[in-house]
């Protein structure tokens, strides 16, 4: 096996133009369609969500054919918001809707849009996005008042120009920011976001865990490199603490560059994270690892216990649980 690379030695630079060009669904959803979504019969809301998304795609792409005596069609909100637990197929449906819409169109995580504003400035970000027929926002979460204000203003301007919105989240829009900052002080802004969306709840079990039991497996230190070699492809190997420290020096919008062209990642001496900033940065990395389907092998603490009990009981609980779900899946990936 060639010598493993180190993520700690990477300091990727991502231009604003690259961020805009990368606003497409992750490769794992290349084949995602409404037809390939498999609703769980035990949870009727899944089939209802597919039907509603298909109806919405038709309503948004087909011009209304009027007539003097034609009954007025019901008002359709400019946005759809898929609220549900982890692994119920929300991103699959979001990618399917994106594919059903004509271009130009954009698909990205919440953090990618806020990074775009940071890289381009607000006015230029609006100009870049304003021609879009639809803006798809995966993992919509408001972690601070600044994000709340920026996204309220941005979405308002895009909707006013005719752009449609679609978002997924593990948090209903009227509860965004809850437990993380003084959400009550920004209730008007949060409600303005909520008012633009029709909310669709999707229930179900995490599909990533249907065929997986237990925690994320660990390997013995002497077995780590052989385990990575068995996976094949391009391998990265880092000490967990060194990687966590390195993440603090790279903007989360550039984490995609950290994992580019990496097929498997080995982590030595994983430990429980107690610092909130470290934990949130690690969550952002996990999201990029999952998008790229990078298999993980690790020594030390199981990755399913990397976040402290205090964190799992706090305002970012859903973020951490989503990350754990993804870590367990990647730790089992062959």
**Total tally of structural domains:** 2
- Class from helix and strand fractions: alpha/beta
Average pLDDT over all residues:
83
- Residue share in helix: 40-55%
What share of residues are in beta strands? Answer: 5-15%
Approximate shape: globular
Write the element-wise H/E pattern from the N-terminal end onward.
Answer: HHEHEHHEHEHEHEHHEHEHH
The CATH architecture designation of the largest domain is 3-Layer(aba) Sandwich
Rg, Cα atoms, Å: 21 Å
Q: Would you identify the CATH H-level superfamily of the largest domain?
A: P-loop containing nucleotide triphosphate hydrolases
Largest sheet: 5 strands, parallel
Q: Give the N-to-C terminal Cα separation.
A: 17 Å
Output the number of helix runs. Answer: 13
- What CATH first level of the largest domain would be assigned? Alpha Beta
Kindly identify the CATH topology of the largest domain. Rossmann fold
Q: Strand order within the widest sheet? A: 2-3-4-1-5
What is the number of E strands?
8
Query: Which parts are unreliable, with pLDDT below 50 for 5 consecutive residues or more?
Result: 65-74, 172-187
GO molecular function: ATP binding; ATP hydrolysis activity
InterPro entries: ATPase_AFG1-like, P-loop_NTPase
Protein name: Cell division protein ZapE
Organism: Agrococcus carbonis
Explain what you see.
GO terms for molecular function: ATP binding; ATP hydrolysis activity. Helix content is 40%, strand content 14%. It has 334 residues and is α/β, with parallel strands linked by helices. It has two domains: 31-205, Rossmann fold (3-Layer(aba) Sandwich), CATH 3.40.50.300; 208-332, P-loop containing nucleotide triphosphate hydrolases (Rossmann fold). A five-stranded parallel sheet has the order 2-3-4-1-5, sandwiched between helices. Helix 4 packs across helix 5.
């Amino acid at each position: 096996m060639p010598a493993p690379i180190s993520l700690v030695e990477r300091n990727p630079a991502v231009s604003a133009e690259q961020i805009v060009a990368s606003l497409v669904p992750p490769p794992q959803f290349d084949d995602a369609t409404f037809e390939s979504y498999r609703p769980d019969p035990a949870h009727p809301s899944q089939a209802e969500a597919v039907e509603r998304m298909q109806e919405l795609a038709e309503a948004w792409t087909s011009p209304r054919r009027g007539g003097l005596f034609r009954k007025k069609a019901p008002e359709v909100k400019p946005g759809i918001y898929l609220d549900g637990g982890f692994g119920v197929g929300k991103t699959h449906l979001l990618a399917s809707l994106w594919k059903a819409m004509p271009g130009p169109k954009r698909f990205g995580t919440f953090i990618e849009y806020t990074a775009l504003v940071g890289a381009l400035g607000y006015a230029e970000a609006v100009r870049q996005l304003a021609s879009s027929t639809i803006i798809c926002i995966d993992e919509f979460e408001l972690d601070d008042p600044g994000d709340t204000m920026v996204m309220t203003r941005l979405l308002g301007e895009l909707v006013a120009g005719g752009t449609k919105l679609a978002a997924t989240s593990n948090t209903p829009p009227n509860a965004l920011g809850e437990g993380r900052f003084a959400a009550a002080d920004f209730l008007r802004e949060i409600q303005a976001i909520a008012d633009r969306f029709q909310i669709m709840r999707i229930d179900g079990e995490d599909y990533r865990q249907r065929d997986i039991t237990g925690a994320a497996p660990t390997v013995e230190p002497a077995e780590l490199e052989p385990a990575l070699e068995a996976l094949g492809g391009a391998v990265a190997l880092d000490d967990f603490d060194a990687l966590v420290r390195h993440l603090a020096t790279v903007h989360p919008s550039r984490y995609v560059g950290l994992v580019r062209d990496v097929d498997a990642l080995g982590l030595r001496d994983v430990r429980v994270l107690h610092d909130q900033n470290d934990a949130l940065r690690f969550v952002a990395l996990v999201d990029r690892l999952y998008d790229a389907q990078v298999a993980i092998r690790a020594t030390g603490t199981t990755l399913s216990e990397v976040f402290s009990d205090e964190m799992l009981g706090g305002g970012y609980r859903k973020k951490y649980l989503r990350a754990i779900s993804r870590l367990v899946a990647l730790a089992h990936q062959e």
